[in-house]
Design brief:
94 residues, single chain, 2 helices, alpha+beta, globular
Length: 94
């Protein structure tokens, strides 16, 4: 499971991606946490995600890789922390 932190419209958020949490404020597919960010992905499920190098994929809220791509494309992700595969925190701020 990944913990993703960032900003959407200037407001800080935190979500988990990988396994939905029953105790979360909101959940959509494999993501739980911020109600605003969950609403964004719920509304845009199935829409194209333009990649940074010109490729296009489509949001599938049940696919953790697509959810992370969407968060990166549509919000300002500043930190991704993994707690599984030995992934440590990654600062993705630019």
């Amino acid at each position: 499971m990944l913990k993703v932190y960032g900003y959407m419209d200037g407001i800080a958020y935190g979500v988990t991606v990988g396994t939905p949490r029953e105790d979360a404020a909101a959940t959509v597919g494999v993501m739980s946490g911020s109600p605003g960010v969950c609403s964004l992905l719920r509304i845009r499920d199935g829409e194209p995600i333009d990649g940074p190098h010109g490729g296009t994929t489509y949001l599938d809220v049940n696919n953790p890789d697509r959810v992370l791509e969407a968060l990166t494309a549509w919000t300002q992700v500043v930190r991704v922390a993994g707690d599984g595969d030995g992934d440590g925190p990654q600062d993705v701020s630019g």
